[in-house]
């Protein structure tokens, strides 16, 4: 089963289990996102087209990450005038995993587990690199108390010079 949804002014053809990169959506990683703007549903040869939306159809997805996209360079030039300008831009985007499609009396779910691993970590793994994970602060109670063993060694050193002085 597949669906055509509309988000961010664009249309996407999705199936359960697909990874989708769309314009930025609000939410934290792991949040559920529901799309009600379903333009078309398809299941084999049976196709349901909305006018303009399919009634009661819904596509559910899980938000994996929000990141910046690829760099876009804007270069302007007027020849023989000494005019050159360079600007750049990186659009924010959201990565989603489609988990289910419901509508037209049918439902299709993805049975896999949604992994919240970011694209940067996946790229590092593919190149056999170790990516430094952000440090998680440990609680103070979990730290082991230090023993007073070095004090005994310091006491012996102070006694030896006194014995030589006598």
TrEMBL record:
Q: Which InterPro entries match?
A: bL21-like, bL21-like_sf, Ribosomal_bL21
Which keywords has UniProt assigned to this entry? Ribonucleoprotein, Ribosomal protein, RNA-binding, rRNA-binding
List the SUPFAM superfamilies: L21p-like
UniProt keyword Plastid, yes or no? no
> By what name is this protein known?
Large ribosomal subunit protein bL21
- Matching Pfam families, A to Z? Ribosomal_L21p
> One cellular component GO annotation, for this chain's record?
ribosome
Q: Where is this region: Disordered?
A: 128-166
Which residue ranges have biased composition labelled Low complexity?
134-143
């Amino acid at each position: 089963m597949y669906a055509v949804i509309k988000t961010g002014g664009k249309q996407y053809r999705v199936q359960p289990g697909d990874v989708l990169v769309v314009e930025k959506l609000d939410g934290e990683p792991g949040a559920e996102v529901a799309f009600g703007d379903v333009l078309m549903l398809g299941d084999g040869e049976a196709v349901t087209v909305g006018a303009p939306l399919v009634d009661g159809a819904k596509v559910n997805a899980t938000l994996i990450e929000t990141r910046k996209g690829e760099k876009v360079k804007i270069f302007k030039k007027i020849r023989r005038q000494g005019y050159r300008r360079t600007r750049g831009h990186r659009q924010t985007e959201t990565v989603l995993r489609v988990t289910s499609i419901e509508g037209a009396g049918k439902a299709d779910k993805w049975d896999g587990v949604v992994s919240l691993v970011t694209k940067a970590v996946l790229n590092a793994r593919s190149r056999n690199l170790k990516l430094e994970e952000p440090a998680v602060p440990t609680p103070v109670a979990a730290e082991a108390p230090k023993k007073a063993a070095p004090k005994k060694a310091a006491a012996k050193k102070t006694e030896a010079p006194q014995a030589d002085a006598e």
